[in-house]
Amino acid sequence: MDIQLLSILLMLCITDSLCLRCPEQIHLSFGDEHETMVVMWSIDIQIRCQVEYGESPDLLKYSARSNVSELPEWSSNALKYIHKAEVKNLKPGRRYYYRVVALDDNEHAVIRSSVHSFTTLTNDIGKPQKYLLYGDLGADADFPIYRKLEEEVASNNYTAIWHVGDMAYDLTSENGQTGDRFMQLIEPFAANISYMTSPGNHEIPGDFMHYRMRFSMPGIEWPMPLTKMWYSYDIGLVHFISYSTEVYFSHNEDYVCTQFYWLLDDLIKANQKRDKRPWIIAMGHRPMYCSNNNADDCTNRFISRWVKHGLERLFHAQGVDLIIEAHEHSYERLWPLYDEKVYATSYDNPQACVHVISGAAGNVEGVNWMRRRPEAWSAFRDDKTSLYSYGRLTIQNHTHLSFEQVSAQDNSLIDKFWIVQNAHGPFLKDITCEGPNRHESCVCPPLIRYVYLIIGLALGMLFVIFVGIICCFCCWRRSRTKKPKGYVTLHPLNNIEHEHYLVEGADLV
Ligand SMILES: *[C@@H]1O[C@H](CO)[C@@H](O)[C@H](O)[C@H]1NC(C)=O
Ligand SMILES: *[C@@H]1O[C@H](CO)[C@@H](O)[C@H](O)[C@H]1NC(C)=O
Ligand SMILES: *[C@@H]1O[C@H](CO)[C@@H](O)[C@H](O)[C@H]1NC(C)=O
Ligand SMILES: *[C@@H]1O[C@H](CO)[C@@H](O)[C@H](O)[C@H]1NC(C)=O
Ligand SMILES: [Fe+2]
């Protein structure tokens, strides 16, 4: 009895002294297979951990060990140890309960998290599925969207959340403290539903290190390598693709074509199964088009439309139904279009990709205002009232999908539309990606650095021509203002005068 009491006291001591904040920031994502769920968390000490789980909250009879990654030194304010556990062989369409437990050297539990729960994917492929979706969410507890997302997830109506890039502003800020705060803010819902991500420009600092460690996505090793921050995942009637637009904007551009050929291969395979899984939905952070009043990647036509340049032809050729983007802090929906050309002003059997930009979840940078005049491709736009809004995507059946943009401030519906597609498939028919006659959409467009090189060379040549013209002009002036012949053939003593004269002449130009 005494010994027992002593050991409990000792345990409390260990717990208190070793670990002040742990384990926390618990969140989920889909595993490589449908029967697997990934659980992740952070902790401030080096200690072994496991997930205990089961189908009843009172009987967590199974366990799964975790692997650990250590955040680098420069993240000194963040909890250092990030854990990932895979909970495997789960039954489809069931609710599971789990908690995270830290173990001492004798495999005794020293700290336990509270119990969370999730539902596994069903085998019924045709069942309607709903998703929550947004980009650009900062780590501020006052943003109304956090409360709203918790409410939405608690309704058990959703299959997953898709966060299409830009989180926390930034995960690395305050030496990692902002990242911890963001992960704490999403925990109330991200511990109950898969939190699926794409990298955005705010994930770039520190070589995407925090993004690559704090999240783990299906089909990618962990921590996620720079060579593959993209993935696809089949759920029900949808083939989801998450791609990285950041390959075009960071030194990660080495992987522009790695990603392109991965996407090509993935899309060709997805098209072979389109009768069973008709919808293809792709997500990436920076939009190809937008009508915001700034000089962003999607607004400037000439220099910076790299995502459009890199991927539009491929997505069009392979018949991606819907492209979801963010980055602009507003909401915009486009008519089906390809290469600036509007194909229809309805979503009744679109013959080109439909784009939706939903990057207004809430962040320190505020709203991005729209330009006064929308282009012909802009079907609906909202800047002011879109602040703190998010998307709801519903896959109804083989032919019908709906998208809603909802305000977290007053629950009002900002926009709603349906896409009806009776004949899913590539928008360019009868193209081949094999052999010498392969279609241009199957070839990775030239890298950004080559285009920069060409622009650089062109500017260099312009400069040389400009300098040449100036020189000629000077020579001409000089020859015109030359003094009588005797002046040129002076003896050395008078040379000083000559030079003096030239300087004066130059001043006049
Ligand atoms: C942990 O790492 C080992 C070895 O790399 C790997 O086989 C295992 O799948 C990993 N487990 C998790 C949960 O990632
Ligand atoms: C998460 O799951 C736990 C355990 O079932 C539950 O108590 C909590 O209300 C759930 N939260 C949400 C947002 O679904
Ligand atoms: C869940 O979805 C159903 C069907 O769309 C809807 O009637 C219900 O109100 C939703 N529940 C909540 C809590 O949002
Ligand atoms: C698909 O869903 C739409 C909208 O709910 C409905 O009108 C249509 O009849 C459904 N199609 C099939 C084949 O069930
Ligand atoms: Fe962004």
TrEMBL record:
<dbReference type="InterPro" id="IPR004843">
    <property type="entry name" value="Calcineurin-like_PHP"/>
</dbReference>
<dbReference type="InterPro" id="IPR029052">
    <property type="entry name" value="Metallo-depent_PP-like"/>
</dbReference>
<keyword id="KW-0325">Glycoprotein</keyword>
<dbReference type="Pfam" id="PF16656">
    <property type="entry name" value="Pur_ac_phosph_N"/>
</dbReference>
<dbReference type="GO" id="GO:0046872">
    <property type="term" value="F:metal ion binding"/>
</dbReference>
<feature type="domain" description="Purple acid phosphatase C-terminal">
    <location>
        <begin position="352"/>
        <end position="415"/>
    </location>
</feature>
<dbReference type="InterPro" id="IPR025733">
    <property type="entry name" value="PAPs_C"/>
</dbReference>
<keyword id="KW-1133">Transmembrane helix</keyword>
<dbReference type="InterPro" id="IPR015914">
    <property type="entry name" value="PAPs_N"/>
</dbReference>
<keyword id="KW-0812">Transmembrane</keyword>
<keyword id="KW-0378">Hydrolase</keyword>
<dbReference type="Pfam" id="PF00149">
    <property type="entry name" value="Metallophos"/>
</dbReference>
<dbReference type="InterPro" id="IPR008963">
    <property type="entry name" value="Purple_acid_Pase-like_N"/>
</dbReference>
<protein>
    <recommendedName>
        <fullName>Purple acid phosphatase</fullName>
        <ecNumber>3.1.3.2</ecNumber>
    </recommendedName>
</protein>
<keyword id="KW-0732">Signal</keyword>
<feature type="transmembrane region" description="Helical">
    <location>
        <begin position="450"/>
        <end position="476"/>
    </location>
</feature>
<feature type="signal peptide">
    <location>
        <begin position="1"/>
        <end position="19"/>
    </location>
</feature>
<keyword id="KW-0472">Membrane</keyword>
<comment type="similarity">
    <text>Belongs to the metallophosphoesterase superfamily. Purple acid phosphatase family.</text>
</comment>
<feature type="domain" description="Purple acid phosphatase N-terminal">
    <location>
        <begin position="23"/>
        <end position="120"/>
    </location>
</feature>
<dbReference type="Pfam" id="PF14008">
    <property type="entry name" value="Metallophos_C"/>
</dbReference>
<feature type="domain" description="Calcineurin-like phosphoesterase">
    <location>
        <begin position="131"/>
        <end position="331"/>
    </location>
</feature>
<dbReference type="InterPro" id="IPR041792">
    <property type="entry name" value="MPP_PAP"/>
</dbReference>
<dbReference type="GO" id="GO:0003993">
    <property type="term" value="F:acid phosphatase activity"/>
</dbReference>
